[in-house]
Amino acid sequence: MIARLLLLALGLLYVKAQQQNTCELIEWTGGHYVWPNEATKNIYRSSGRYISRNVIATRAQVYRDEVYLALPRYKAGVPATLARVSLRQRGCEADLEPYPCWAAQEEGDSSSFQSVVDIYLDENQILWVLDTGVVNSLEAPVRKAAPKVVGINILTQKKVKTLDLCGLVVPASRLQYVVSEYAPDGRPFVYVSDAATRSILVFDVAGNKGYRVVLPNAVAGSRRDVLYIALIRKPVNNFLLITYLSGARFFQIKTDFLRAGCAAGKIQDIGAKGAKLVILGTDNGSALFFRYEGRPEVYRWEVGTILKSAELVYKSPENYLTTQAFPDVSRRRVRVLESNFHDFLKNTVGCGASQRVSLMISNVPQPSAVC
Fold first, then answer.
1. Do residues 228 and 276 lie in contact, with contact meaning Cβ atoms separated by under 8 Å?
2. CB atoms < 10 A from the CB of 312, how many?
3. CA–CA distance, 112 with 114 (Å, rounded to integer)
4. Residue 14 has pLDDT above 50, yes or no
5. Which is the most buried residue in 9, 13, 168, 260, by most CB within 10 A?
6. SS3 call for 241
7. Can you give 150-201 as a three-state secondary structure string?
8. How far is CA 280 from CA 153, 207, 232, 289, 336, in A?
9. Nearest-CA neighbor of 138 among 56, 238, 258, 193?
10. Portion of the chain with pLDDT greater than 70, in percent
11. Contact 84, 67 (CB under 8 A)
12. Are 88 and 17 in contact (CB under 8 A)?
């Protein structure tokens, strides 16, 4: 009997070790940062600059064994708004390492990150970081700096470009999502959604110039709440899929038109949604992941087919909802970032929001399928 129990225990330990080796799941509560030293942590905590329960990750990207996280400064007490965690971490709690360093997180310093709301990793390992410049956005919003998009080469951990968005926004702007692509000639372009002005900001990185594309009234409908954008890659053309959370329909435009600055009349209506959908991300190809508002089920939809053909590919555990699905290219899998964000908004998270990064079923397409 004792021998059987020992074998069972060894078997469970082996399964747990295998799960860790395949990097299937990492999780943490609140903001468990890697501090330079204990004294620094105590200074931040005593001054109110570190309140663990006010930290939550809402967006993520992955490269090899590192997951990069956007930690918006929705509330006071978020010491670092951009961080990374290791898929090879050990122990119960994942450690948030400020990225690229602590110095880049200084609130009130216009050259540092103020509130990172979205990130996008391109095929050349440039992490594009959307910083609204507004902190405490859920409590008493304060603008600390101008909005910007920063490009970081994650291989060198160096900033390679800062895009000043001042000339493209208005005081009422609400910047929410960022994606990027490369033109056929190799020039990088960055696209940012501005929900309040019903616009897409287009930035020619190499040319250091940008412009604003105002979307048709039909895109917004009655409410300008959350303006989702997703880069859909097809064999011949790339498309930017566009929809509001409260919008009734999906729209798209060829990115050729966005890059050329001739988007007028080029936006296509591609169908009704039927309900409020939360857009989660893509597989780096032509598939879009989404969930219905308030629901834990994640669906995969091949854009261009009827929405009813969407396939159920994942379901978050109880009390969790997915905020992003993102490709893990090195493992040819898709990961999800999930949390009890709904409880965070209601201030009912106790010690902090529960957050996790886990694998879902869907595979990432081969590179040849997304060129």
1. no
2. 11
3. 6
4. no
5. 168
6. strand
7. EEEECCCCEEEEEEECHHHCCCCCCEEEEEEEECCCCCEEEEEEECCCCEEE
8. 24, 30, 13, 5, 9
9. 56
10. 91
11. yes
12. no
Q: Kindly report the backbone phi and psi dihedral angles of residue 79, in degrees, each rounded to the nearest multiple of 5, phi listed first.
A: -70, -30
pTM of the model: 0.92
**Selection from 28, 213, 231 nearest residue 120 by Cα:** 231
Alpha-carbon distance of 35 to 154, in angstroms, equals 21
β-sheet with 148-153: strand ranges across: 116-121, 126-131, 148-153, 158-164
Rg of the chain, C-alpha, whole Å: 21
Instruction: Find the mean pLDDT for residues 105-120.
Output: 98
- Terminal CA-CA length for the chain: 58
Determine the Cα–Cα distance for residues 360 and 62; give it in Å rounded to an integer. Answer: 14
Task: Write down the mean pLDDT value for the chain.
Answer: 92
- The reported pLDDT for the residue numbered 264 is 87
pLDDT tens digits, residue range 156-190? Answer: 999 999 999 999 999 999 999 999 999 999 999 99
Return the amino acid letter for 347: N
pLDDT at 360: 86
Is residue 208 packed enough to be buried (19+ CB in 10 Å), middle (13-18) or exposed (0-12)? exposed
What is the structure's pLDDT at 21?
44
